[in-house]
Amino acid sequence: TSEEACDYLDKLIFDAPELCAFDYETTGLKPYHPNHRVVCASLAPSDGEAVAFLFPKETTNKDKSPLNDLWRRFLTESSIGKIASNLKFEHVWSLAKFGVEPENWQWDTMIASHVLNNRPGITSVKFQAYVLTGLIGYDEDVAPYLKASYKDESEFGGYAFNQIDKAPVDKLLTYCAIDSLA
Question: What is the pTM of this model?
Answer without folding.
Answer: 0.91
